[in-house]
Specification:
- The protein has 116 residues and is mainly beta.
- It has one domain: Immunoglobulin-like.
- Helix content is 6%, strand content 45%.
- The chain contains 1 helix and 8 strands, in the order E-E-E-E-E-H-E-E-E.
- The strands form 2 sheets. A 4-stranded mixed sheet has the order 2-1-7-8, with no helix packed on it. Strands 4-3-5-6 form a 4-stranded antiparallel sheet.
- Strand 7 and strand 8 form a beta hairpin.
- The longest helix is centred in the middle third of the chain and has 7 residues.
- It starts with a strand and ends with a strand.
Length: 116
């Protein structure tokens, strides 16, 4: 399956449909944009970010536009918002394995883990 992500809005108890997500490859202090997505009705990209044949060993960053998503839902956020862009840096050591990076998020907190 390669690399995938899924975002759940814990404030509203639903998938984060419409959230913007960007995927970067990272090396040293440099980040190179690879893809941008708008999450679907299920809080996922339509297809895996990478399939097993395309995923490479290395370091990556997923950037989730948390403030933009909650503002679009009509949530009154302070200015500046507590969470704006949530960046998750992670490594892929075994490109033949599936790396699933879920995000559970509200305007004030988030958590992640390596899913299945």
């Amino acid at each position: 399956m390669g690399l995938s992500t899924h975002v759940l809005d814990t404030m509203n108890g639903c998938p984060a449909a419409g959230m913007q997500v960007s995927l970067y490859s990272t090396q040293g202090g440099e980040a190179t944009l690879l893809q941008r997505h708008t999450l679907n009705h299920d809080g996922r990209t339509g297809a895996p970010l990478f399939d097993n044949a395309s995923l490479k060993v290395g370091t990556y960053r997923l950037v989730f536009d948390v403030a933009g998503y909650f503002k679009a839902r009509g949530v009154a956020l302070p200015e500046p918002s507590f969470l704006d862009q949530v960046s998750l840096d992670f490594g892929v050591a075994h490109a033949e394995q599936h790396y699933h990076v879920p995000l559970l998020v509200s305007p004030w907190s988030y958590s992640t883990y390596r899913g299945s």
